[in-house]
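This section describes the prediction task in plain terms. A model, or a person checking by hand, is given the sequence of a single protein chain and must write out its three-dimensional structure as a string of tokens. No templates, partner chains or ligands are provided. The sample shown here is typical of the held-out split.
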Amino acid sequence: GGAASARAPPREFLAQDEPPIQIQVSTALLLQLIQATAQLPPIEEPDLQLIQDSCKVPIGWCDRLWVTLLEKLPAAKHTSLDVKTFLDHFVQDLLAVQHTPEWPGAQLLLRRLVMALNTSKGLQHPESAVRLACIDLLGTITSAFMADCKQAEEEQEKVEALLSASGYDADAEREGGAFLGDEDKARVEALQRLLLGALAARPSSGTRHTARTLIVQQMLLQRAVFEQQQPPVMSSQPQDLMPPMEPPQPPTRAKKGRKGQTAAAAAAAAQAEAEREKELRRESALAQQGSALLAEFHALLTAPPRVAVGTDASSTASISRWLLLNSAMGRGRGSFLLWLVNAGSAVGKGGGGVGAGYQATSTAERSRAVKALGSAIEMDERVLGHVDVQAAVCAALEDDAVSVREAAVELLGRHISHSPELAMTYFDLIGRASNDAGLSVRKRAVKVLWDCCVQCGSAAAATDAYMDTGAPAFTRACEAVSLIMARAADAEDSMRKLATGLCAGLLFSSGSHPAVPDADAEAAGGFQGASLAAAAKGSPSARAMLLAEVCDLVYRSDAPTSIKLPLPSDHSLVVVLKAILGQSSTSQPIVGGGGALAAQAAAAQQGAADLARALLEKIMELQEAAAAASAALDAALTGT
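The expected answer:
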């Protein structure tokens, strides 16, 4: 039933000994069945096309399995069979074992599932519930692939070392080899041979036999496709099989009458015979190539290579991730992102190309797609630089549904906190979201501004590690504070409390902010990056200057050309000060009560008093400087 299916199923099958990986028995059974369908064609059938068709049998069974399961999704809601939960746990198992040499069928199944998801059985299905389930599956797989590909890039040197230690000669492959200089394909086959060697070094079992057969079959398929794309080598044919070469004849007018027709027919017959002979030679050459391939790979299956490197679980996992990165699925992972983008679009996608045929999406689908993109970004933040992903985030922030806009803000907030560069890129979008019509969106945006732009953005910009990257510092921290302060005049009481609380902590309390190097709070250029956080934890004078700059931004955002004083009572700055000092008529003081809250209120009020004195001192200092300058000017004028 529903409650039982919600629990994680028992995973009692030990799929790998060290490190131990356990999966469901049903997953192991299905994987073994798929791998058992892999058989090498007999040597007596050397036709390259027949070889390819034979090697594609496991692919056909994978497709049949996924189509059967996806077709059960619409009817499953009317029965006790929870197909979605089964699919979720099945995919989790496949991801867990996809980098073990004993289960090469896992990557094959995952690759075919991704293709099945982008069909009328999946993301293009007319029922929203089916599309939701497929968005979840695609999001899970995409996130895992992003993580694997990123790790594979980091392990490039390790894989190169394994190849070198195995005797792989890159120079020889470039000059010729089985793939005629195609080094990428040669590397793939060399690493697959290492996996075969790793399997040969382990105790014999039924699983290892089917795994070895599937790997060899995939190698044979790759070679057969390559061979068929090359022109057949026919120079080894005996000379007496070559048709005689006749010198070209000058063009003549066609002769009329029966004699002329007979000559034309004879010429056509000779031409047809020459073409037939040429095709026979081509077929013979291809058959010879096919026979050589089958002999080579049958021998490889019978006597797999014995290698001394790459046999441990860590090495085989690195090899598998490298193969995934350089496979069609690894190179096409950008398409997975595009499918998620299309699934999260508010309108259906028509026309041709990737994503064609999508139905108009529901609010739940769009929200789920944004969260799936967020999971992919969590695995590799470079995804945020993808043009389609940026467009999708912008569209989600403009969505009609509050839940979609909130999911988009949350996505950004999770990934820009430690990157001032990303915070700069998406600052304007988050700033607009802080004034969203939805309360939950405004709250989320204000928290992102605080966490990512005021605190983390400023602190990250001040670290030596970030400075070493050469990336630009975050220079809009004061704007973030002004946007937060603007919400102090919000219509919702909870929003006002959140904004005034954050402003109180920043401007009227010290010692509660990121510990960053001290900075001169009055340096030219104002408070940017690390200096903002330094000022917030510094002296009343430094915090007074910070308040002055923030207030200037608030003033100019309200009236860009002029500042009108006194400020109205509902102005955000007035609201903040009244709330901190307990003089607000629309809400309770931001802090108050007994115990710790009373201490916080007293500290905030003391901080406000210190700041006010610092402001007055600064005003008097400026007035004295202005008076001195005026006196000096008068003296200079009088003296002349």
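For orientation: The longest strand covers residues 13-16.
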